[in-house]
Amino acid sequence: MKKKHLWLIIASLFVLNIIFILLLTIRPAVLFAGSGETVAEVGKDKITREEWLNEMEQRYGKEVLNDLIDQKVIGAMAEKYDVEVSKDAVERELTLVKTMYQGNRLQQLDESKWKEQIKYSLLLEELLTRDVVVTEEEMKDYYDQNKSLFQVPDSYHISQIVVKTKKEAEQTIKELENGSSFPVLAMERSIDEFTANQGGETGFISEEDERFSQDFIDEAAKLKEGEWSEPVEVEDGYAVILLHEHLDGRNYAFKDVKNQIRRQVALEQMDTPASAKPFWNEIKVDSFYDKQEEKQ
Questions:
Q1: 3-class secondary-structure state, position 134
Q2: What pLDDT does residue 128 have?
Q3: Looking at residue 162, which CATH number applies to its domain?
């Protein structure tokens, strides 16, 4: 259940990324309104900014608007019922989200956006479960039965460039030392099919990660943030590892995660989706898409 909850946060972060892209594109669109500016050419065909934005709205508009409404609703309800979440709770959840994630999409958002979305998710859980009674015994039983959920191993956020020979790896390091871009080199020459197109971005790895050998993980552990490794032998050849971030492992005590467990147990007892929709009527939400549906 906890992992499902974390993946919902990650999905919400992707929605935030869509919002960010829309803001970047819609703001300039105002300046070019009515100009039919071309954003792409395909042979003799042209794609205008208006066509592009209309397509983006059709695909993502309702989802993005609903997410923005949810945030406003959650903020208003939290203020109404005097519900808060601590900075420690947000930081703890952020650590868990980071260590679960593999890939580069989350890097497109700065950390403040991560924390903002996590805060709203936790506030929503508090609001939904504020009247649910969970006993101390139930919380302790949950903790004892799910201790692995609260044990975070040392984790390393890395990128990698994989080449066939040690000589190629050494040449890659020379180019990095001369100022070449790690992501560009990864896209140009890495033979790793999963990370090359992402500029070598691999996400977080730990000793529990079966994708990598112990030697590979040990080499990542030796690096300082922003530092790359000497050639490391891997199954397909040799890798050059770049360390972005190191998160220290931690085992959370019961007292540290007690509130988190209370929310989780309460949500399981309720057996309903963690959605802000039930509060929309209380706040009197009136949205563009609701009006459109009423007309149909």
A1: coil
A2: 93
A3: 3.10.50.40
pLDDT grade for 181, boundaries at 50, 70 and 90: very high
Quickly tell me which residue has 């080449």 as its tokens: 163
Residues of the domain holding 260: 55-148+251-271
pTM beyond 0.85, yes or no: no
Residue/partner pairs of 57-64 with CB below 8 Å, 24 or more apart: 60/18, 60/22, 61/289, 62/289, 63/15, 63/18, 64/15, 64/18, 64/19, 64/22
| Residue 40 · residue 46 · CB < 8 Å | yes
How far is the C-alpha of 105 from the C-alpha of 98, rounded, in Å?
11
Same domain for 186 and 227, yes or no, is yes
Structural tokens at position 254: 């019961």
More confident residue, 216 or 21: 216
CA distance 192 to 232: 14
Q: With H, G, I as helix, E, B as strand and everything else as coil, classify residue 205.
A: strand
The tens digit of pLDDT for each residue in 207-227 reads 888 889 999 999 999 999 999
